Amino acid sequence: MQSLPSASEVSRPFLTWQRILDWAQSHYRDRTFSKDERIPARPGLLYLVQRGAVRLVGTAQISVPSRRKSASISTEPEEAFLGFVGAGHPFEIVAQSPFTLQAYAHVEQTSVIWMYWHDLDNWPHFRREILDAFRYQHQRKLLWLSTLGQRRTIDRLLGFLTLLVEEYGEPRDNGYCLPYPLTHAQIGSAIGSTRVTVTRLMGRLRQQNLISIEEDNLICLPTMQTPQDPDA
Amino acid sequence: MQSLPSASEVSRPFLTWQRILDWAQSHYRDRTFSKDERIPARPGLLYLVQRGAVRLVGTAQISVPSRRKSASISTEPEEAFLGFVGAGHPFEIVAQSPFTLQAYAHVEQTSVIWMYWHDLDNWPHFRREILDAFRYQHQRKLLWLSTLGQRRTIDRLLGFLTLLVEEYGEPRDNGYCLPYPLTHAQIGSAIGSTRVTVTRLMGRLRQQNLISIEEDNLICLPTMQTPQDPDA
C-alpha cells in the first residue's frame, strides 16, 4: 500500500477502469462534450473523465455594495478557474450558497461518465482509489492556496503557473508545458486579477525567462530554473 | 451509506474514535501543544486533532525579482493561513518545493495523535471515514478558491469570512461566530492582502452590518443577512 500518492501514480489508469467504462456505457452513463460546453453535473454524483480534460470553475455570488453611488455593481458573477481534471481522474460538484461550482469540457471530444456513490459498493477497491485521488487533489489545492496568499500579484501568478505545469505539464524541448491553452482571463480569474494585468505580468515573466510560451500558445516552465539576478 | 457528508456529520466523532485514542496513547503517538506552538508534522504521516484546534499555514518560496534596484526583496517567506482543523478531524502535511505546509496549535491545550497510513489497515472503516473527511475538506477548499478568484479585496474578504464561519462557527446571540480569534494579519495572509487593508475593510463590513465582532474579538455573521441598500 502506498501512503502518499505521487502524481504519476494517480495518473495511472485505475485497475478496474475498463470494467467501469463498460458498466457506464451499458447504463447510458457516458457522454461526450465539445470544447467549452458546460457539463450538466449535479452535486451528490461522482464524475470521471474518460477522455480529454475538464475545467472546473467556481462562482461566488458575494458582492459588497460599493459606497460610491456612481460605481455600478456588476450583476455578472465572477467565475474563478479552479483547475483541470484530466483523463482517469474524478471530480464532483459542490453547491453551497452563495457559491456554485461548474464543469466545462476544456478540449474537444471530452468524455465523462458518472455514477452514484452507492454504485461503487461493488467496487470497494475502486472507491478507495477515487477517495485517494480526491485526497491528492486536496493536497494540491492547499499548495494552490499557499501561493494565492502572497501579496504581490506577480508572485501569485508565477506560483500558480508553477503548480499547474507541475501537475499537468508534459515534457517538451524547452521544459514542461501545459498540454492545453489557458487564456489570460482564466488565469486572472484564478489569482484574483484581471486579464490586462495578467498579460502585462506574463510579459515580465517571459523577459526574465521564468516562463516561455511555445507554439499553440502553451505555457511552459524552463527545465532548469536558475536563480535570477535582478540587475542582469 | 451517506454519499455527501454534511458539516455536522463530519464533526460527529468517529465511531472507533476511543479505540484509536487508546491505541495512540499506548504507542506514545499523542502530544499536547501550547497556543501557537509549531506541531512537528511530517509528510507521509496522518494526524488527528484530539482536542483544541490546529491552524494550517502554507509557505510559498516563490518571489519574482523586482525590476527596481531600490526595492529590496523580502527574504522572509510569506505564510498563508490555510484554515483550521478542529477536534475529531484529520490533517496531513504536503511538501512540494517551493511550497511547504506547517501546522500550529491555534489554541491552548491542543492535542494531536499521529499514525502511519498502514496503521489503519486494521480499521478499514475508520480509514474510509478519514478519506471522506479529506474529501469534504477538498470540497471546502474549492469554495474557498472560488472566492479568492474575486477581483475586489472586500469581496474576497467577505467570502472568506462567510466560508470560515459557515464551517467552524458556533451559534451565539447575534448569529454565528468563529470559536477562536483570528488576527487581521492572518486573514490578510489568506486572501492575498495586508493587515492594514484587512483592518480598513473589516470596518466597512461592520458599518454595513455584514459582520460583527463579539467579545473576545470573535468574528460573527448575523443570522439574517438582509440585502443591503448601498444608499441607506
Q: Rough shape of chain A? A: globular
> In the residues of chain A, how many domains can be counted?
2
Distance between the termini of chain A: 49 Å
CATH architectural group of the largest domain in chain A: Sandwich
The most extensive interface between chains reads:
A-B, 75 and 75 residues
What is the number of strand segments of chain A? Answer: 13
Question: Percent of residues of chain A in beta strands?
Answer: 25-35%
CATH superfamily label of the largest domain in chain A: Jelly Rolls
Mean pLDDT of chain A: 86
Class by alpha and beta content of chain A? alpha+beta
Number of helices of chain A: 6
Cα Rg of chain A:
19 Å
Q: Helix and strand string of chain A, N-terminal first?
A: HHEEEEEEEEEHHEEHHEE
Oligomer: homodimer
Task: Report low-confidence residues of chain A grouped into runs of 5 or more.
Answer: 1-12, 225-232
Helix content of chain A: 25-40%
| CATH class category of the largest domain in chain A | Mainly Beta
